[in-house]
Design goal:
- The complex is a heterotrimer.
- By secondary structure, chain A is α+β, with helices and mostly antiparallel strands.
- Chain A is built from 18 helices and 19 strands.
- In chain A, helix 15 packs parallel to helix 17.
- The radius of gyration of chain A is 25 Å and the shape is globular.
- The two termini of chain A are about 40 Å apart.
- Chain B folds into two domains: about 110 residues, Roll (Ubiquitin-like (UB roll)); about 130 residues, Alpha-helical ferredoxin (Fumarate Reductase Iron-sulfur Protein, Chain B, domain 2), CATH 1.10.1060.
- In chain B, the strands form two sheets. A five-stranded mixed β-sheet of chain B has the order 2-1-5-3-4.
- The longest helix of chain B is centred in the C-terminal third of the chain and has 16 residues.
- The radius of gyration of chain B is 20 Å and the shape is elongated.
- By secondary structure, chain C is mainly alpha-helical.
- Chain C has one domain.
- The longest helix of chain C is centred in the N-terminal third of the chain and has 30 residues.
- The mean pLDDT of chain C is about 95.
- The chains are: A alpha+beta, B alpha+beta, C mainly alpha.
- Chains in contact: A-B, B-C.
- Chains A and B meet through helix 3, helix 5, helix 6, helix 12 and helix 13 of A and helix 1, helix 2 and helix 3 of B.
Chain lengths: ~675, ~250, ~230
């Protein structure tokens, strides 16, 4: 099948407006005859379900959590971008578009990204109207801050809980529709299979996690808003339940996976502390506004710190290596995430890491505390304040800005970041790759759409900070509600989709068999045992730096792991009733298959771009070497039975509005 | 660390439950409380015992999914932390730790330590929103200035994660802290004013229907709330409800 | 017994309002009552006649009579509403905890309001039997001015150690009841303000201990001085 991105013709800035005007409408009377399934209730899912219901469609929404409000969008900390230019620093839709394309290392689709930048402004208006309590300045107007990879302040925020506030906003819109009976909400339900009838997505098999029952749900379209698959690495900043199952089942039913190897490793996470760690905690990128990242300039100092003989505060300024400021003077600590992460890895690999495992660098607020303190002292009219006074004042300012993050850090590490620098290390955070979608956000299975992190469309090979929230809400509130109309307008005479068809029967049967297999397996190892091993393979070979040999090894290892998993996994308990181990087994099975495909994708992409860094392709200074001649395309993989034997389809990326340049933040 | 865990085991909503004792050794100080339970579960699986079921997801204190009544307190002995943020360094080797589900009539047990908190969703559905369409065709965001103090207070109320610790810890199983936080978030903002009266009347009504107890102002909820939601919100709700009742046309 | 109606009757909040309003009214009653009691500090025949004069006034003056009926009403409302709330609260947690550490997050008094309230109610019944009933229906002698001799009834009651002790215990219970209830009534009525709430709390806490202290002082005075014996 040839990939048609269906990006409308015409000038970039007019594409979306023109397209919206041309999408066939579905009359209100007909909307009432059309059912839509929305899987996942994060920013994309909640906003899409609410918007579609409001338009008149019958919506069924599913989430595996006990409430739609708990989807992992809630954990996003830093902010949401929008080209409002409230700060009058030269921001515009075009600049947001350009920054996103550049930040994504020229591996995203121009049309989609421009649309995202356009609707970004509506998102803020919408959220404020819904009562989202964004941070404000003393005049009562909205405040902004800066994020990595850009030189303007366009990030709207609500302290370190922006994702929470935005999700609660979308959840409130969803609740309004649930209360009206327009959305039927299925919490503690997990999608187990996509049902395709006559080549179109017509429903899902969902598992009621409380009773263990399988339910057939039919619809005229299925929207997958199921987030990313960072948990393939076991340790990531994703929630424990985040998984790829919905997307993977769609992939197995014909939806192509695009750029699966594009993974974002976030530079500022709390380092791994031990073998029993279950997840990693992010420290918001906003911290890089004020924190300075460094390691000791002398190896012996680093060794002394690791051995506990030296305290970071005792290292003199001239013996510190602020390596981001040194390497990238123009952007300094605010370089994009992929660049910052690799630079940290480079220093640690060279032996300058500062925790026991040698895999951590410092994020230091001492300078910011003194700077803010001096400002405060000036405002307060203190003459010749002592250092201690300035420090105390500065700590108050920093607390107001980042208090909850500092508190979170202290709870986890038992170290006080006001007194000694934070220790941070990169961790898996976001997946730019996902289901391939066209301009209408439809996958290669007609009627099956993918929104938010679940699709691949907007962030190329690297996502800029504060853009995930933007994309989730853009897709859910402002894009999908229009674009599903194009597909559904042809379905107004279809009538209710029956759940008694052989396709539903077969899908349910397949799910039952999988479940039975796990329950009756009589293996000896827990699901986590395999998940952890998968994570180790992925992190070592398909992580921050990849090479051909390692990737080939990874594919072989993952295949062996999969065999072992099915032969030896032990799932206790029954199939009927709540059984989280059983649910986890299903998710890990899919993650194992996905991991293999990710390795394959990384192996085939013989270039370094964004979050994908192939050791073979780097400049003498260690910067990523992109190959636009041969790799300016989207890799869309078609499932053929074995993940690493998937068939590659290429969507060539054409850039008519930006010039492809080597990304430089120097 | 060596610990003795006393954990509530209950196979299903209608089954009878009981406290079971599990000795465990090899627990590390850096583990979070939930990682300690993972560790226990791994052991149980190896021994062929069904693992303990508990709710959890984000493990960074924001999703509100984790619960647990640990040694007599919601989310354990820590302050302003959820169970997932509680670390084993808060305990010492040799301790006996009681782990029970959140208890309330409105929070029926699903299995072991997992409870059904959908009552909270129903309270929110009764009015925890502003009736604005999601068209994006609203006025410019900065056309609605909000005094910083009110915006900050609305934010503080809105940081409630809906975990249910307030209900679990209240001797009356009252959901007033939760409901008041959700109501306050909107009543403090100009956008929330048009529906303010109906909102407080309807949400309190739903709260009553769910079978929560009444607030007796012990203040336990505020102490145990992982997000430090203030009792001020309850007073605000009391005030709003009083005025709404007095001035409602119905 | 879920509350299912909205507005000022039946809803959980409304029940709390009635508790708060009736409770606060009873607080004002306590002030009045204590002012009357303080007259017992005046010793001798002069004090006796003045006290009985006061007793006569309190049982006959129409405005006071109306106030007394409101007081009975408030006690009734406070009791019935309190019982209903307590039952509802109990029903809200059918299965309790094996281990519960309530002291970690709430004061003792705030957790024992129903118990303290019951004790107070019991005290009121005994107290009314001792004085109110006797004043209205008992065979009290008359004093020199022809008023019923409530004074003698009172002072002789408190000369008995067990009555004085019971009184002190009950009033102490009342003090604990007030220590939580008096200030928390304001919260229930929605009066909470960063600037004024600390003032309200301090004032009402002082009230909660000083008023009972006044009652106890009178009782102790009567027991120690035994004015009836000295007359």
């Amino acid at each position: 099948m040839a990939l048609d991105s269906k990006v409308p013709a015409g000038p970039l800035a007019d594409k979306w407006t023109t397209h919206k005007g041309e999408i066939p409408l579905v009359s209100p009377a007909n909307k009432r005859l059309l059912d839509i399934i929305v899987v996942g209730t994060g920013l994309a899912g909640s906003s899409a379900a609410a918007s579609l219901a409001e338009m008149g469609y019958n919506v069924k929404a599913f989430c595996f959590q006990d409430s739609p409000r708990r989807a992992h969008s809630i954990a996003a900390q830093g902010g949401i971008n929008a080209a409002k230019n409230y700060q009058n620093d030269g921001d515009s839709v075009h600049r947001l578009f350009y920054d996103t394309i550049k930040g994504g290392d020229y591996r995203s689709r121009e049309g989609n990204v421009h649309r995202l930048a356009e609707v970004s402004r509506n998102i803020i208006d919408q959220c404020v109207a819904q009562g989202v309590p964004f941070a404000r300045d003393y005049g009562g107007l909205l405040d902004n801050r800066s994020f990595g990879g850009v030189q303007v302040s366009r990030t709207f925020y609500a302290k370190g809980q922006t994702g929470q506030q935005l999700l609660l906003g979308a959840y409130s819109a969803l609740n309004r529709q649930i209360a009206k009976g327009r959305v039927k909400m299925y919490a503690r339900h997990e999608m187990q299979e996509l049902v395709v009838v006559d080549g179109k997505a017509r429903g899902i098999i969902a598992k009621n996690l409380v009773t263990g029952e399988f339910e057939r749900h039919s619809a005229h379209a299925v929207l997958l808003c199921t987030g990313g698959y960072g948990n393939v690495f076991f340790l990531s900043t994703n929630a424990m339940g985040s998984n790829v199952t919905a997307a993977w089942k769609a992939h197995r039913k014909g939806a192509y996976m695009a750029n699966p190897c594009f993974t974002q490793i976030h530079p500022t996470c709390i380092p791994v502390s031990g073998e029993n760690q279950s997840k990693l905690t992010l420290m918001s990128e906003s911290l890089r506004n004020d924190g300075r990242i460094w390691v000791p300039a002398k190896k012996e100092d680093a060794e002394a710190i690791r051995a506990g003989k030296l305290h970071p505060n005792d290292i003199a300024e001239e013996h510190r290596d602020y390596y981001l400021e040194r390497r990238y003077p123009a952007f300094g600590n605010l370089v994009p995430r992929d660049v910052a992460s690799r630079a940290a890895k480079e220093r640690c690999d060279a032996g300058y890491g500062i925790n026991k495992t040698g895999e951590a660098v410092y994020l230091d607020f001492a300078a910011a505390i003194m700077r803010y303190g001096a400002e405060e002292a000036h405002v307060k009219g203190l003459k010749n304040p002592t250092d201690a006074e300035v420090k105390a004042l500065g700590e108050k300012v920093v607390e107001a800005k980042y208090g909850n993050l500092f508190q979170m850090y202290e709870k986890i590490t038992a170290s006080n970041p006001y007194k000694e620098p934070m220790m941070i290390y990169p961790a898996v955070h976001y997946t730019m790759g996902g289901l391939w979608v066209d301009y209408n956000l439809m996958t290669t299975v007609p009627g099956c759409f993918a929104l938010g992190e679940a699709n691949f469309s907007d962030h190329g090979a690297n996502r800029l900070g504060a853009s995930a929230l933007m994309q989730g809400l853009a897709d859910g509130y402002f894009v999908a509600p229009y674009t599903v109309g194009e597909f559904l307008s042809k379905d107004i005479r279809t009538g209710k989709i029956s759940t008694d068809s052989p396709e539903f029967e077969a899908a349910e049967q397949a799910v039952r068999e999988r479940t039975e297999k796990f329950i009756n397996n009589n293996g000896t190892k827990s699901v986590d045992f395999f998940h952890k091993r998968l994570g180790k393979i992925m992190w070592n070979e398909v992580g921050m730096a990849r090479n051909e040999k390692g990737l080939k090894q990874a594919i072989a290892d993952i295949q062996a792991l999969r065999e072992e998993f099915y032969a030896d996994v032990r799932v206790l308990g029954a199939a009927n009733g709540m059984n989280p181990e059983l649910d986890k087994a299903g998710r890990v099975a899919d993650l194992i298959e996905l991991g293999e495909l990710m390795a394959k994708d990384a192996l085939e992409r013989n270039e370094s771009c964004g979050g994908h860094f192939r050791e073979e392709y780097q400049s003498p200074e260690g910067e990523a070497l992109r190959d636009d001649e041969n790799f300016a395309f989207v890799s869309a993989w078609e499932f053929t039975g074995v993940p690493s034997e998937a068939k590659l389809h290429k969507e060539e990326l054409t850039f008519e509005n930006v010039e492809l340049k080597t990304r430089s933040y120097k | 660390m060596d610990l003795t865990l006393k954990i509530w085991r209950q196979n299903g909503p209608q089954e009878k439950g009981e406290m079971k004792t599990y000795p465990i050794s090899g627990v590390e100080e850096d583990m979070s409380f939930l990682e300690m339970l993972d560790f226990l579960n791994d052991k149980l699986i190896n021994e062929g015992i069904e693992p303990v079921v508990f709710d959890h997801d984000c493990r960074e204190g924001i999703c509100g999914m984790c619960s647990l009544f640990i040694n007599g307190e919601a989310h354990g002995p820590g302050r302003k932390v959820t169970t997932c943020q509680l670390h084993m360094r808060e305990f010492k080797s040799g301790d006996t730790i009681y782990i029970e589900p959140f208890r309330a009539k409105a929070f029926p047990i699903i299995k072991d330590l997992m409870v059904d908190r959908s009552a909270f969703d129903r309270i929110q559905r009764a009015g925890g929103y502003i009736s604005v369409n999601t068209s994006g065709n609203t006025i410019d965001a900065n056309a609605i200035p909000v005094p910083k103090e009110n915006a900050d207070k609305a934010f503080d109320a809105a940081t409630c994660i809906g975990c249910g610790a307030c209900v679990a810890t209240c001797k009356n199983s009252s959901a007033m802290l939760f409901a008041s936080a959700k109501i306050s978030q909107f009543s403090l903002l100009p956008q929330g004013q048009p529906e303010a009266k109906e909102r407080v009347l309807n949400m309190v009504h739903q709260m009553d229907l769910e079978g929560f107890g009444n607030c007796t102002n012990t203040g336990a909820c505020e102490v145990e709330c992982p997000k430090g939601i203030s009792l001020e919100n309850i007073a605000r709700m009391n005030r709003d409800y009083l005025f709404a009742s007095l001035s409602s046309n119905k | 017994m879920a509350t299912t109606s909205k507005g000022l009757f039946g809803s959980s909040l409304a029940r709390k309002y009635w508790m708060a309003v009736s409770g606060l009214f009873l607080c004002t009653f306590l002030v009045g009552h204590l002012l009357g009691n303080l007259q017992l500090f005046v010793a001798g025949e002069e004090g006796k006649l003045a006290f009985n004069e006061y007793g006569h006034f309190m049982t006959t003056f129409p405005v006071v009579k109306i106030l007394s009926y409101i007081t009975y009403g408030a006690i009734f409302l406070h009791t019935v509403d309190g019982i209903m709330l307590a039952l509802q609260n109990r029903a809200a947690r059918p299965v309790g905890y094996v281990k519960e550490k309530q002291s970690a997050n709430a004061s003792w008094a705030s957790r024992k309001m129903a118990l303290l309230g019951t004790l107070t109610l019991f005290f009121i019944v005994v107290h009314m039997k001792s004085f109110w009933y006797e004043m209205h229906y008992g065979a009290l002698g008359l004093d020199a001015n022809g008023n019923k001799d409530l004074w003698t009834l009172t002072v002789t009651a408190f000369e008995q150690w067990w009555y004085a002790a019971f009184y002190v215990v009950a009033i102490t219970g009342l003090a604990f009841h007030l220590s939580h209830g008096a200030q928390s009534a304001f919260q229930t009525l929605g009066i909470n303000h960063p600037r004024y709430t600390p003032i309200i709390k301090n004032t009402m806490t002082a009230f909660a201990w000083l008023i009972p202290a006044g009652f106890v002082a009178v009782a102790v005075f009567l027991f120690v001085v035994q004015p009836g014996q000295n007359l």
